[in-house]
Amino acid sequence: MTPLLALSAAFGFGVAGIFLKRALQYVDPLPAAVLSVTFTTAVVWTVTLSTTSLDGLLTPRILPFVVAGVIAPGLARLALFTGIDRVGVARTYAIGATAPLVSVVLAILFLGERPSWLLLIGAGAIVVGGTLLSARPPGDRSWRRRDLVFAGLAAFGFAVRDNVTRYGFLDFTDPVLAAAVSTATSGTLMWTYALIAARRELRVDRLGLKLLMCAGVAEGFAYVTMWRALARGSVAVVSPLTNSHSIFAVVLAAVFLRDLERVTWRIGVATVLMVAGVMIVLRFGAR
Fold first, then answer.
1. What is the pLDDT along the chain (287 residues), one digit of tens a residue?
2. Nearest 10 degrees: CA dihedral of 170, 172, 221, 122?
3. Of 23, 60, 125, 263, which residue is most buried, by most CB within 10 angstroms?
4. CA–CA separation, 55 vs 165, rounded Å?
5. CA–centroid distance for 190 within its chain
6. Number of folded domains that form the chain
7. What percent of the chain is helix, strand and coil (3-state, nearest 5)?
8. In angstroms, how far apart are the furthest CA atoms of the chain?
9. Burial grade of 107 (CB within 10 A; 0-12, 13-18, 19 or more)
10. Are 179 and 224 in contact (CB under 8 A)?
11. Residue among 74, 68, 87, 79 nearest 21 (CA)
């Protein structure tokens, strides 16, 4: 049951990426991030209010999930959307698949874990995948290599969130309420930033709004199933399966976004290598 929940979450994230790319034809990344988080929060809170108690909100043990919400999906979501807008769904989600690796590296640095030789194999697969991903055919000026940094920042943000979340679950046992608090914090942060820092009105085309609503529903479903999977199984099982969303995103982009971006053999091979590397690292890398 746990693998099925994790893969369902991966599929949800992949579907959301397709809707987001379409929406970014009509909406700038900032309002897209704000509205997507809002719709995601609404879905998660609907599930929370119908399935769990809110008593945990009154304890300080919820604070790690507030911090996690500030990092991701809050600020990391904005970086993710900017990456999708500038380099496409396939490249952004493939780089995003390295988030668990970054999470393991942070655990090694701050928790004293020792890497095994298998970690080096996984890391090597990710490096090769990243090299293929950043390779740009001669004459292709549709994207810039430096814009890959937004996808990297998003991956880093999600990795930090994972570590903060793991710390929080040492004393807190309700994953659905934790997800609700995290998304609500993200929504509050994004709306505050948008209203204070935005230089122009947050105009949204009607079609863009509908697409963002669909993306928000898909991500809300993904978050709920991901947290339920984490409640049932270990992070070592759930995290690599959930982060296989880049495979779904690349396949769906090849089918539904052919008019917006090209999924080349480099992107396909890079995605497989990077996801395989992440799975190796999380399954065998840290002892």
1. 777 888 899 899 889 988 988 998 888 887 888 888 899 999 999 999 998 889 889 899 999 999 989 987 778 877 877 887 788 766 776 676 666 667 667 766 775 656 567 766 776 676 577 556 655 566 666 667 778 888 888 888 887 887 787 778 778 888 889 989 999 999 998 898 888 766 555 677 889 999 999 999 999 999 888 877 876 776 666 766 777 777 777 778 878 887 776 767 777 787 778 777 767 766 665 44
2. 0
3. 23
4. 19
5. 16
6. 1
7. 80, 0, 20
8. 58
9. middle
10. yes
11. 87
Q: Contact at 8 Å (CB) between 85 and 24?
A: yes
Six-digit token string for 14? 């992949």
Q: Which of 147, 173, 177, 135 is nearest to 87 (CA)?
A: 147
Q: How many residues does the chain have?
A: 287
Q: 133-137: which pairs have CB atoms within 8 A and are 24 or more residues apart?
A: 133/91, 133/94, 133/95, 133/266, 133/267, 133/270, 133/271, 133/274, 135/266, 137/264
Is residue 168 within 8 A of residue 231, CB to CB? The reply is no
Residue 207 domain boundaries: 2-285
DSSP secondary-structure letter at 11? H
CB within 8 Å of 74: residues ≥ 6 apart: 37, 185, 186, 189, 190
Q: What residue type is assigned to position 226 of the chain?
A: M
3-state secondary structure at position 202: coil
Question: Nearest CA to 94 among 225, 254, 283, 287?
Answer: 254
Task: Answer whether 148's CB lies under 8 Å from 91's CB.
Answer: yes
Token pair listed for 57: 């909100």
Q: Write the CB contacts of 25 (distance below 8 Å, at least 6 apart in sequence).
A: 208, 260
Q: Which two tokens stand for residue 52?
A: 């769990």
